[in-house]
Amino acid sequence: MKRLLGILAWVAVAALGALGLGTIALHRGEGLSATWFVLAAACSYLVAYRLYSAFIAAKLLALDNTRATPAERRDDGRDFVPTNKWVLFGHHFAAIAGPGPLVGPTLAAQFGYLPGTLWLIAGAAFAGCVQDFVILFCSIRRDGKTLGEMAKDEVSKRGGTIAGLAVLAIMIILLGVVALVIVNALKSSPWATFTLSMTIPIALLLGVYLRFLRPGRVIEASVIGVALVMFAVVAGQWVADSPAWAAKFTLGGVTLAFALIAYGFAASALPVWLLLAPRDYLSAFIKAGAIFSLAAGILLVRPHVLMPPLTRFVDGSGPVFAGKIFPFCFITIACGAISGFHSLISSGTTPKMIQREGQARFIGYGAMLLESFVGVMAMVAACAMTPGVYFAINSPATIVGATPEAAAATISSWGYPLTAETMTGLAHAVGEQTLLNRAGGAPSLAVGMAQIFSSTIGGERLLSIWYHFAIMFEALFILTVLDAGTRVGRFMVQELLGRVWKPIGRMNWYPAIVLSSGLIVALWGYFLYQGVVDPLGGINSLWPLFGISNQLLAAVALVVATTILLKMGKLRWIWVTLVPMVWLVVITMTASYQKIFSTNPRMGFLSNANTLAAQIAAGKIPAAKIGEMQRVIFNLRLDAVVTAVLAVMFLVLLVEAVVQWHAILGRGREAKLHETPYVATAWVEGD
Amino acid sequence: MAEKMENRKWKIGLFRKLWQGLREWSGDAAYETYARCAARQRGVRVLSREEFYVEQLQKKYSRVSRCC
Fold it and tell me: Could you say which residues of chain A have pLDDT below 70?
């Protein structure tokens, strides 16, 4: 009887999910309540977790709770620390949830709400969660080895080197792109620039507090820090209202780019306790608070999604970024559906802290479902504003014009009514001079979040405070990715250069630190700078490049996972990782090809470069602009080369893996696995 | 009355668990966990709270610890 009731309950959940998905897919006309999105996503996740993850745990991975995990066998209280599964879930989620699931869906909203939402839900259930879960399992069985080490052991030595290089390349592109998102959010905004600037002295203060006054007392320091940051958000309004101070904090894109480059260098070269760590603590608390507040706000306010299910831009002519729905919707939304970067976290700290193998399902699969839910909420927040406003904020001036009147006329002609007064009124209401041409996703998400928050607390009066709180929240945790990523990139550069000249590899030698920090910030700073000066707004070129590289890393992770599963003799269930891997290969290779060779200048790097070169040759570019255009041409060709190199690197790894698979299947017996030997757990059930 | 006391105890227990979870999640309780573990190992010098804090940070930020 109990079993029958259980089955009936799950059938009801599945039916509700199907109803939600059907409604958001088939709805036409007036705005659709966000409740349907929450219902569709939550029920789909529950069913996926209950059925698919259980199937993977039992049939594919055969998780074994009698087997001691690395945290039990090597418990040292430092690296290997058995951790409560709920605490570890929080750790893992905080590590995987970055700006990606917020920015990607916001940008992909240009296709309408439907494709992105479906990809977020299905992509997470069948690809992203599978990747995180399987890689976590593989790493647990190998004492917490990294993805690169597993690629080296299980695929080939060259595979390991390629995975390592891919991680470094992706990191450089990622840092350039996320920095560009901050620049576009802060430019010409004294309030936002002041607030974010203030987080630096606040972090320094906390750094000294945590190092010398109260070592390691993270909660009390974070409480002080969060209070000071909130005060800085409010004080930003006074700065914006003061002509003298506002002038000091009103910065252009190039100035902000150099400020960020200098910040990245400082965070990498200074002692980690002084700036990087305290900022990360601040960011973690504010991130958790803002995400839960957004979820609560959406549930309370239940805003109506005003964006149509599909826009006219599915044909590839979108103003935010060029490219058809296939493959660019799946490239633009990387984190939130599947992100290769997660495989680095799943093969990093988490496997060294897990108490039992069985918990890998809850932590690996479950945390990614939650991240996907964050992506769905970002989609709702972005689509809750009128489409005209969304396109005005996210389109570059070269497409919609630089004035409210021009933008309103262009966007209205696309069939999305917008008046100049709407944009000036909205900018005024959120305390900004303008909201036009702020590609990158952060400002439009902040407007969406501010509208939801202000509907719950404060009304119109607090709209500007909520907007700047949302900008601060996004920028703060993008900066955390930026500084932590720069530091890790510095270590990678030191390790690589150390093979050529040993002293560079010494992590505590200050000239090596300065040189490698300078090199890594120069590399990502270059991408940032080219994005800032790009006439198409930068995001058009760089976000797809980031999406391609991130999805390629996910394909690398799934290649490694498939190889390990084949070695384990799991041929019957190999489609679990093989199908998402093939899907990623198809979308990344198609996108790479189109980004390099498309004859549409807005999409293809080479055709864009050739068009600009032809304009210079025909004398259509003013003499004063020729130098700038030549730099843009060089950047476009460089982007084409970077895309091609990443694709070739992946294809080499894939060929290595296919050769390995052929050998495994040809032998007809289990191949050599590099797992640590079985040790029975000494913990009784329930420990 | 007894039921009220039981209820109160349950609430305090829950609050303690939540507080401990928050401390572990944030890293606030990391030193206590380490000190407990180090006390079990013979011949190992136990790091001071400050030494442990700096060592942990250096380890954490030398590998990928935050995703995009």
Answer: 668-670, 685-687
Inter-chain contact B24–A210, Cβ cutoff 8 Å?
no
Report pLDDT digits (tens) over A318-373.
999 999 999 999 999 988 999 998 999 999 889 999 999 999 999 999 999 999 99
CA A6 – CA A259 distance, rounded (Å) = 57
Does residue B65 sit within a domain? no
Q: How many beta carbons lie within 10 A of that of residue A303, not counting itself?
A: 21
Q: How far apart are CA A273 and CA A220, in angstroms?
A: 16
Evaluate whether residue A433 is within a structural domain. Answer: yes
User: Residue B67: inside a domain, yes or no?
Assistant: no
In this complex, is the C-beta atom of A354 within 8 Å of any C-beta atom belonging to chain B? Answer: no
The minimum CA-CA distance between A95 and chain B, rounded to whole Å, is 5
Total domains in the fold of chain A: 1
Chain B residues whose CB is inside 8 A of the A349 CB are 60, 63, 65
Number of cross-chain residue pairs from A and B with Cβ atoms under 8 Å apart: 126
**Chain B interface, best mutation among A212, A273, A331, by max B CB count within 10 A:** A273
Question: Hey, is the C-beta of A281 within 8 angstroms of any chain B C-beta?
Answer: yes
- The closest of A320, A286, A500 to A393, measured between CA atoms, is A320
Residue found under tokens 């294809």: A651
Q: What is the pLDDT of residue A668?
A: 61
ipTM here: 0.90
Is the Cβ of A388 closer than 8 Å to some Cβ of chain B? no
Q: What is the DSSP letter of A313?
A: G
- Number of folded domains that form chain B: 1
Q: How far is A84 from chain B (nearest CA, A)?
A: 8
φ and ψ of A680, to 5 deg:
-70, 145
Would you say residue A45 lies in a domain? yes
Asked if A527 reaches chain B (Cβ–Cβ under 8 Å), the answer is no
CB contact under 8 A, B21 and A98: no
Q: Could you say which of A167, A174, A210 has the minimum Cβ distance to residue B68?
A: A174
Which positions in chain B touch A222 (Cβ < 8 Å)? 26
Residue A167 contacts B where some CB pair is shorter than 8 Å: yes
Pairs from A446-451 (Cβ < 8 Å, separation ≥ 24)? A446/A185, A446/A470, A446/A471, A446/A474, A447/A385, A447/A389, A447/A393, A448/A106, A448/A380, A448/A381, A448/A382, A448/A383, A448/A384, A448/A385, A449/A290, A449/A294, A449/A297, A449/A381, A451/A303, A451/A384, A451/A385
Contacts of residue A90, Cβ cutoff 8 Å, sequence gap at least 6: B21, B25
User: Quick check: is A524 in a domain?
Assistant: yes
Cβ contact, residue pair B57, A215, below 8 Å:
no
Q: Structure pTM?
A: 0.93
Q: For position A365, which CATH number holds? A: 1.20.1740.10
Domain holding B51, by residue range, is 2-60
Chain B nearest-CA residue for A176: B68
**What one-character DSSP code corresponds to residue A305?**
E
Q: Is residue A350 part of a domain?
A: yes
Domain ranges, residue A395: 2-189+250-667
Report pLDDT digits (tens) over A268-311: 889 989 998 998 888 888 888 888 888 888 989 999 999 999 99
Partner residue opposite B34 with nearest CB, options A78, A339, A488: A78
